[in-house]
Amino acid sequence: MKNRELFNLYAGDIISHELFLQTKHIFSHGIITIHDHSIAVAELAFSMSEDNPRIDKKCVVRAGLLHDFFLYEWHVPGRRYMLHGWAHPAIAAEKAREIFGVSDKEYSCIRTHMWPWTLFHPPRCREGWIISLADKLVALKETIFNRGKRHPLRQFPTTT
Predict the structure, then answer these.
(1) Partner of 47 at 20 to 30 A CA spacing, among 11, 69, 137, 139?
(2) Does the residue 139 lie in any domain?
(3) Alpha helices by DSSP H, the chain
(4) Taking every pair of C-alpha atoms in the chain, what is the biggest distance, in angstroms?
(5) 41 is in which domain, residue-wise?
(6) Which pLDDT tens digit goes with each residue over 107-133?
(7) Considering Cα of 153, then 16, then 36, then 85, what sign does the dihedral take?
């Protein structure tokens, strides 16, 4: 990342917010928290867009940070666990709008970041495609390099 100051300018109010700090206690991929995952996605998306003057960098940073801002533990078996992949983009987008007043473009990037998993909600702008790709690349890295390391809630009891 070439311009850490610009990234920090766009990220500061979100990263320091008490509700975003709660994501340090919610797990994403294995032992990786939503907090760390979201920062990694925002940083990668910002780096991917840094040299392109047609990309809204503020949108990329804010949507990257808030793309998984759903604020619940989803690793518990049950309905939420089964539907999380489809439901969480809309939940995160609504929470981001309610708490941070995200722009329509930022909302759209958050809402569409799980495409093609959410088949009928593809990204609608360059920034949305960048967030979706960055999320997949970071998730792949987190999953591969933390194979076998799982959050305790993912250790589902076996029935005998």
Answers:
(1) 69
(2) yes
(3) 4-15, 18-21, 34-49, 57-66, 79-100, 104-111, 126-145
(4) 59
(5) 4-149
(6) 999 999 988 777 778 899 999 999 999
(7) positive
